[in-house]
Write a structure and sequence with these properties.
The complex is a heterodimer of chains A (392) and B (288). Chain A has 15 helices and nine strands. By secondary structure, chain A is an alpha/beta fold. The two termini of chain A are 20 Å apart. In chain B, 73% of the residues lie in helices and 1% in strands. The chains are: A alpha/beta (392), B mainly alpha (288).
């Protein structure tokens, strides 16, 4: 294991790179990509009050298919601007691309709390001006002062979800899933029809929870190595698949058991069930003692945004209760907005009764375990164990 | 005269290769955890490379490299079995339809590789067209799960994805063959089979080598074929998947870059063999 070598600063790297480029007479595009655009100064203060929205376009950085196109269209219509969405696959990839300047966007639509500290410390996000965010009053009180962003200076929450097991209730007895819990993912009865999340923190933390260990931010090498060894059992025992396709594979019947996110089951129930299939074929399990992973994505304005006012107005648009509900109807991921509880969502027909437990309650949010930033040495052990597991 | 070629080589090979070295032997930004390349060799740190070499030669990554090599060799054999007859037919037999056949061979390039792999995902599903055809032909129960993480599906995907790249250079080589040598062989009493074995095949070696290099190099770095066709099964993980994991946002990009370098070294050995074979072939040709 090799720790970080902190030799040159980021600025040194850019300067030395430019010298090399001058010597070679080439490579400017590569170095520009590494260093970003010097014309775009990072902003460390919130924008002023009362500014007019820019002409756009508003450039948004988001996961693919992670916002209702109708909600985006209504924003475009309201402000007469175009919204351009650039996508990424995993949170760390987004951070790398923003840091290298290889994407130029105004708004990070879905950043994870456990990497947010790096975005802020790296000067990639600008503080928010809350005078543009009156709809932030709709957000659950639990997010007034979130652990990852004290005072919500840089972000507003976008979605809230838990990690559990999505399964086919028509093929596996729900009582059996309830009894077995995480162990069912190691039950060879379901060999070939089981998957786990392609996310090193989620995968290894799940193996720790199975052993009753609740420190999902551990730096204890022995614990991390053991979790990796437990996951490696799954390759031969279960012919496990490692992906983030549970949202469609379970509804379509390709997978019977999927370690996945709660929003995937709710969204999948309406978007991916074959025509004529009743949503009651789906099931959701989350630890009955409430000790499981709870996570959220959040939105923030990029420090060198060209349309920071529009970015604020877009976030405010998504925090509007009606828009949040419309977004949930399409996406299945719960916005942390007051009033959008299980009773209401089931009554509206957005969530089938059998997936009630996939809608997070205040109790689950309060008891839930959170992924926090890891020291780099520990993070590298987590990554190495995930690499070993995937090596088969 | 050599300036454009030199510039091309420097811009598209040497600079990127040096950047990979600088990342592999560099550090990590302590805040963002992105690569902090060490451009000056004096600053190079070989710790990550040592760790990766341990894993490649004595640890868990050894079988990833072996698996990748086997997949590439099996897919190459498949490309040869399919590609050679096709290239031979187009070069030697097609006549006036040659132009149409060449267009058909180029046609797959008009659709992105990912789209073609996604199409295979649909075809190979349990209720997909492949199983239905096999059932109709009484060649199976029609319920085989082709996407269950088995190597034959990955090899099939690699063959399908890369066989056009194999056919085109081979066709170009076969089309330039001196067909009078084949006629001489027949005149001297050799059968069609022995003419092929003793004359056509040896004369196609440079074309075969070029075609093989063109398909094997990208196959060894491929990471999406097995991802799409196995649902992400660790049993079919290739080196490209490990490189993708480490370079797409982990806190150890040096590990990913080190894997790139090790893979490049392995492939350079194969490339050197190709160059030596071509040089030898040209020397023998000049003597004849």
């Amino acid at each position: 294991m090799t720790g970080p070598r902190v030799g040159t600063s980021r600025r040194d790297f850019i300067v030395r790179g430019a010298q090399l480029a001058a010597v070679l007479g080439i490579g400017a595009p590569l170095l520009q990509a590494c260093g970003g655009d010097d014309d775009d100064e990072a902003v460390t203060e919130p924008i002023d009050d009362g500014l007019e929205p820019e002409a756009g376009p508003l450039r948004v950085f988001n996961y693919s298919d992670y916002v209702n196109p109708d909600v985006v269209a209504s924003f475009e219509e309201k402000y007469g601007v175009k919204v351009e969405i650039t996508t990424f696959d995993v949170d760390a990839e987004a951070l790398t691309k923003l840091a290298s300047g290889s994407v130029e966007v105004d708004l990070h639509h879905s950043c994870a709390p456990n990497t947010l500290n790096r975005l802020i410390a790296g000067g990639l996000l600008q503080p928010l001006n809350k005078s543009y965010l009156p709809n932030a009053a709709n957000v659950l009180a639990a997010f007034d002062d979130p652990w990852y962003d004290p005072g919500s200076q840089y972000t507003v929450p976008y979605t809230l979800f838990s990690s559990g097991i999505g399964y086919r209730a028509d093929r596996i007895d729900p009582a059996l899933v309830e009894t077995a819990g995480w162990d069912i993912l190691w039950d060879p009865t379901y060999k070939g029809v089981t998957s786990i999340l392609d996310d090193y923190r989620e995968g290894l933390a799940m193996a720790m929870l199975r052993r009753g260990l609740t420190d999902v931010n551990t730096t204890d090498e022995e614990v991390i190595r053991q979790a990796g060894a437990d996951l490696r059992e799954l390759t031969g025992l279960m012919n496990i698949k490692v992906n983030i396709e549970g949202y469609k594979d379970v509804p379509e019947g390709v997978t019977d058991l999927a370690h996945t996110w709660s929003g995937d089951m709710i969204g999948g129930a309406y978007s991916y069930l074959p025509e004529g299939t009743d949503p009651s074929v789906l099931g959701w399990w989350y630890p009955s003692d409430g000790v499981g992973i709870v996570n959220n994505d959040c939105m923030g304005v990029i420090s060198n945004a060209k349309s920071p006012v529009l970015a604020h107005l877009y976030m405010n648009h998504l925090l509007d209760a009606a828009n949040a509900e419309l977004n949930f109807e399409w996406l299945g991921y719960l916005p942390p907005i007051d009033g959008l509880d299980a009773d209401y969502l089931i009554a509206q027909g957005y969530v089938p009764e059998n997936l009630r437990s996939a809608v997070l309650t205040n109790d689950i949010v309060a008891k839930g375990l959170r992924f926090e930033p890891l020291p780099i040495e520990a993070d590298q052990i987590w990554e190495e164990e995930w690499s070993k597991f995937n090596a088969g | 005269m050599a300036a454009p070629g030199t510039l091309w080589l420097v811009a598209l090979f040497l600079v990127p290769a040096y950047a990979i070295l600088a990342v592999a032997f560099g550090g990590v930004d302590p805040i963002l955890r992105t690569a902090e390349p060490a451009w000056n060799p004096v600053d190079w740190d070989f710790g990550a490379m040592r760790n990766v070499l341990d894993r490649v030669f004595t640890g868990d990554l050894a079988h990833v490299f072996v698996r990748t090599g086997l997949f590439a060799l099996l897919a190459l054999a498949g490309c040869f079995a399919i590609g050679y007859p096709v290239a031979y037919y187009v070069a030697r037999v097609a006549g006036r339809t040659r132009g149409v056949l060449l267009v058909l061979l180029v046609l797959p390039f008009w659709i992105s590789y990912l789209m073609r792999m996604l199409a295979w995902v649909n075809l190979l599903q349990t209720d997909g067209l492949v199983n239905r055809v096999l059932e109709w032909l009484h060649l199976g129960s029609g319920s085989r799960n082709w996407l269950d993480g088995d190597w034959p599906t990955v090899v099939m995907g690699l063959i399908y994805g890369y066989v056009p790249f194999f056919i085109l250079p081979l066709y170009a080589a076969l089309e330039r063959l001196d067909w009078r040598l084949l006629e001489a062989s027949r005149d001297l009493g050799a059968s069609r089979f022995w003419t092929f074995v003793k004359v056509t095949l040896p004369l196609s070696v440079p074309g075969l080598m070029a075609a093989s290099v063109i398909v094997v190099l990208p196959m060894c770095g491929d990471y999406y074929t097995n991802t799409y066709l196995t649902g992400g099964s660790p049993r079919t993980e290739m080196v490209g998947n490990q490189i993708e994991f480490f370079l797409r946002g982990t806190s150890q990009p040096q590990t990913g870059a080190s894997l790139v370098i090790i893979l490049m070294v392995f492939l350079m050995v194969a490339m050197a063999y190709y160059l030596i074979t071509i040089a030898r072939s040209q020397r023998d040709g000049a003597r004849a």
